Amino acid sequence: MTAHAAGGKRYPPRDQPLSAAAAVEHDVNPLQHLIHQRLRERGWSYGEVARRGGLPRSTVYTLATTRNLARPPRPATLDGLAKGLDVPVSAVRAAAAESTGLHYYDEVPAGRAQAGDPERELLIASIDELTPEDRRHVAALVESLRKKASPEQADG
User: What's the pLDDT score for residue 23?
Assistant: First the structure.
């Protein structure tokens, strides 16, 4: 079984059972997990993520397959990866930092919940208690809410 995409192939192949895909991700760092999760969810290849984010395919492939990162990728690489994966850059920064043994805490956006907000803390603290399927549902809900908020912020 191959854990990466070659050429235009998808990761993991769409006909591959989820349990086999889960086995591939058994021993991955948080950045690898994020990349593989988005590839599966969107049906994208490394090349597609690279194109969308303006990165070399080899960079996306290396980040997706390197278990032990010696240091976090450059900020421009993280920005491009976030764009290519269509996720907030703070999520990519946090995953990259944690993959090197660091923990990244993003600033609370202006006008949003402040640090110490019990609902925010509950969401963050409880995410590891959810099953993978429940986390996918929460992630889909959050993505839906983000898309809904984007046009409103543009108008405001």
Answer: 41
Query: Domain map of the chain by residue range?
Result: 1-106, 114-156
Whether the link from the prior residue into 17 is cis, omega within 30° of 0, is no
Show the tokens assigned to 56.
């070399």
Q: What's the DSSP call for residue 67?
A: S
May I ask the CATH architecture of the domain 1-106?
Orthogonal Bundle (1.10)
Q: Which pLDDT score, from 0 to 100, does residue 149 have?
A: 74
Model-level pTM greater than 0.85? Answer: no
Residues of the chain with pLDDT under 50: 1-11, 14-25
Distance CA 102, CA 108 (A): 19
Radius of gyration over every alpha carbon of the chain, rounded to an integer in angstroms: 16
For residue 36, how far is the Cα from the chain centroid? Answer: 8
DSSP label at residue 46: H
- Residues in contact with 84: Cβ distance below 8 Å, sequence separation at least 6, in sequence order: 48, 49, 50, 51, 52, 53, 54, 55, 60
Residue 60: which of 35, 25, 93, 89 has the closest Cα?
35
